[in-house]
Write a structure and sequence with these properties.
Layout (H helix, E strand, L loop, with lengths): L2 H18 L5 E9 L6 H11 L9 E7 L2 E4 L4 E4 L17 E4 L3 E8 L5
Parallel strand pairs: 1-2
Antiparallel strand pairs: 1-6, 3-4, 3-5
Helix pairs in contact: 1-2
Amino acid sequence: MHELSIATAIIERAGELARADGAEAVSAVTVRVGELAGVVPDALDFAFEVARDGTALAGARLVVERIPAQAWCGPCAEEFAVGTPPFFWCPRCDHPSTDLRSGRELEITGIEPSPAPA
């Protein structure tokens, strides 16, 4: 399950970013996961819950933004959904596309620091 190594990397990087901003703990991390990134969002969520224990993200939740795979057809200027398994033929003009516009993302897009204790 490679989602565990991905979750660990997210936790490490989010912790680094939080510390750089002066936060001691994180309450939420938002990640974008593309449809073709090879990551199962539910497995990533489970792995995150397991890996966060004992870290600055111990109470944090993972927010996953799923990004659909979209390709661009040059001949007819059409953007279309690729789907899974991916199918790169334009549904409008029946030409193949080599221009994948989205769907491979795997990135942290936001970190919500925990409120400081009173």
